[in-house]
Design brief:
Radius of gyration: 29 Å
Structural class: alpha+beta
Oligomer: single chain
Helix content: 10-25%
Distance between the termini: 101 Å
Shape: elongated
Strand content: 35-45%
Number of strands: 13
Order of helices and strands: EHEEHEEEEEEEEEEH
Strand order of the largest sheet: 1-3-2-6-5-4
Length: 216
């Protein structure tokens, strides 16, 4: 039985096209897809729906397709879904070769907790890298443990896996540590209240001093 980590997928070559045929495919638990790249003519196939729904939970998954008994490595480049029901409507697959490098957007994951009272804002949810097609990292981790307000982590600061090259602008802001706006607003309100109390106390002290002077 296929599992979420089983990237071996049986692909059925299809010769019928059109929205009507695609709907019948999906009703039968299959997903229409197209394989392209490396100068080959686009090949239209049908993929097992349940297995693909599990596999595409991972970004940039590479599939070991069985196409008419021949193995073909492909990278999932695009997944088209129904915007309302989120049903997978079509998948684009790019032909890749072992050892070949590809450019992909890899998800960024934040680990740890910044300094007390601050939050880590993830500005770039993905980062563009060039990596070997068969060694695409599942994500890039950013450790924010104990980082203080004002700390900025850019793409250049990321620890990349061996063999990966940064494609994104090195100055791209990935994570910014800051004090939440609500906390700053609350602190401003407290400061304003303290200032009002201090002003009232000063005014009362001045009035008391004027009263004492008048009674002498």
């Amino acid at each position: 039985m296929s599992t979420e980590t089983d990237t071996k997928v049986h692909a059925e070559v299809r010769e019928n096209f059109g929205k009507g045929f695609a709907r019948r495919l999906r009703a039968a638990g299959k997903i229409p897809a197209v394989i392209y790249g490396h100068g080959t003519d686009p090949l239209h196939v049908a993929l097992p729906g349940h297995q693909m729904a599990l596999l595409i939970r991972r970004a940039n998954v590479v599939l070991e397709l069985d196409v008419n008994g021949k193995e073909q490595l492909t990278l999932v480049k695009d997944v088209q879904k129904d915007p309302v029901h989120q049903i997978i409507e079509h998948i684009d697959l790019l032909v890749v070769k072992k050892g070949e490098k590809v450019q992909v957007d890899v998800p960024v994951v934040v680990l740890g907790e910044p300094f007390a009272g601050t939050i880590a804002n993830l500005d770039a949810t993905t980062i563009a890298l060039e990596v070997e097609a068969t060694h695409i990292p599942q994500n890039i981790e950013v450790d924010v443990e104990g980082l203080e307000d004002g700390t900025h982590i850019t793409a250049a600061d990321l620890k990349l896996p061996k063999g990966a090259t940064l494609i994104a602008d090195p100055e791209t802001l990935v994570v910014a540590v800051s004090v939440p706006a609500a906390t700053l607003a609350a602190e401003d309100e407290i400061a304003e209240a303290d200032a009002e109390v201090a002003a009232e106390q000063s005014e009362e002290a001045e009035q008391a001093a004027e009263g004492e002077a008048a009674s002498e």
